[in-house]
Amino acid sequence: MKTTLTKILILCFAFLSFTSPTTAQKAQPGKSWEDKNIAEWDETDVKTILRNSPWGKILEGGGIQLGGAGLNVRALFTLRSALIVRYADVRAEQLKLKFDSLDEKAKAEFIKKFKPVLDCSACERSYIVGVVGDSDLFRQPALVKNRAPRIFLSNENGERRELSNFSPQTIPGSEALFFFPRYDTNGKPLVTPANKTLIFTIVTEPEDDSVVQLLRRVEIKVSDIVREGQVIF
Minimal CA–CA distance to 124: which of 73, 179, 58? Predict the structure, then answer.
């Protein structure tokens, strides 16, 4: 249920020290991740949030031709500043490290390391979009920043936020981060529950690679990322 999601999002520091539920408390098979406590999320739930949900999805399209055959191009597009995404990231780390089996010192180190991920001071003032895809452009911050006026978030009313900062991919398969101001000069956010569409745009150039071309326009239905009257982004 959608109401459950907002309730679990109020848990921040406390979540980090959660242990997995006991056998009697474990979520029922087939239960949606939105109906579970965060500590009940398993690897499938985390993957669903990050790769197949309103907050994270895999984009696919045709690319360059190699020997006459089409090359399928993929990119992972994530609303990185959404708290639900940050919870999923931290939960993934808990599962990978088998958090329940760690000693108290290791748990304390984990909490210290990942609390800033959930707090995310940059998320308070910026919308952040993450992209994973093999693009030479996304490894060159100077080139991306030069194109800042042509990389923006907008809504269906034409209001927009141009790129304000960029964190490049460091190696193939890593994530590039695009930062956009959350508020205008009057303190109004770009996206509210009253909006219909959120649009990520890169105005492409002829020499842009297939991943950049794939990202030239990505639309998100705002109602899909609203829970209990709040935009989760």
Answer: 179
Give the Cα-Cα-Cα angle 222, 116, 118 (nearest 5 degrees): 30
Q: Are 219 and 164 in contact (CB under 8 A)?
A: no
Contacts of residue 126, defined as CB under 8 A and 6 or more positions apart, other chains included, come to 81, 164, 165, 179, 180, 181, 182
- What pairing do the DSSP bridges indicate for beta strands 226-227 and 217-221? unpaired
Alpha-carbon distance of 59 to 75, in angstroms, equals 5
> What is the pTM (predicted TM-score) of this model?
0.85
187 residue type, one letter: G
The rounded distance, in Å, linking the Cα atoms of 69 and 206 is 21
pLDDT tens digits, 47-91: 999 999 999 999 998 655 445 555 678 999 999 999 999 999 999
CA distance 14 to 175: 27
Q: Which long-range contacts (CB under 8 A, 24 or more apart) does 15-19 make?
A: 15/39, 15/87, 15/90, 15/118, 16/90, 16/110, 16/111, 16/114, 16/115, 16/118, 17/107, 17/111, 19/99, 19/100
Select from 114, 115, 54 the least CA-distant residue to 79: 54
Angstrom CA distances, 71 to 3, 58, 62, 63, 66, stand at 42, 16, 6, 5, 7
Structure-token match 């020997």, residue found: 67
